[in-house]
Amino acid sequence: MIKKLLTIVLISVFLLAQGCANTKKYAGTTELKTQTNANSKILLMPLDVELSELSALGFLETKADWTENAKEHMTNSIADIMASKNANSSKYETTSTDPNATSYQLAKLHEAVGYSVLVHHLGHQPLPTKKQEFDWSLGKDAQALAKETGADYALFVFVRDSYASAGRKAMQFLAAFAGVGVAGGTQVGFASLVDLNSGDIVWFNRLVSTTGDLRTPKAAQKSVTNLLDSFPTAG
């Protein structure tokens, strides 16, 4: 848990140095294609979203009610965007909590790969073997989802959002008088479209912001719209 929080903080600081609110997309494809039909089937994977409150001392406390509300708002917004693009999409439904399940393992892998993209492709630590080429994948295990559901692509979404507590806001106010900057809440996330036949990530976008509120429908819609900016169209 400590390592996870440190990773989020380090990435947040790095990205915020590039701007208070921005997106950075990679479009390996601008048109969704299949060998069987023009209306590609997109599987919407369960959202990997977590909302927390930032304490006065900088500790993160996960808020279950905020998280559930955010998932609902984001799910609705994603559905609206898919409909506006005439995308043939459907939610991946599962009741399994087995950590060995393919969907669970792919979600954790997406988190790890997504962080690697932020650091090594969009950041200042490029990998010598990849250089500037966008060559990232979830591997052949993704084919299991294609066989199970008949989908051609899968959309994975990962977001970690935090909000300053009253104590944190008070500390920010007092620190400002001393000329010291104290960070507030931060919204960090990324979305990936994965070709289930190969496991390759064919589209990727990041979102980082010090504003926004996933707890409300309208603000959540804005964040999701930014996160899915330039999402490929069906071909």
From TrEMBL:
UniProt keywords, alphabetically: Signal
Name the domain of life this protein comes from: Bacteria
UniProt signal peptide: 1-19
Under what name is this protein listed? Lipoprotein
Native organism: Pseudoalteromonas rubra
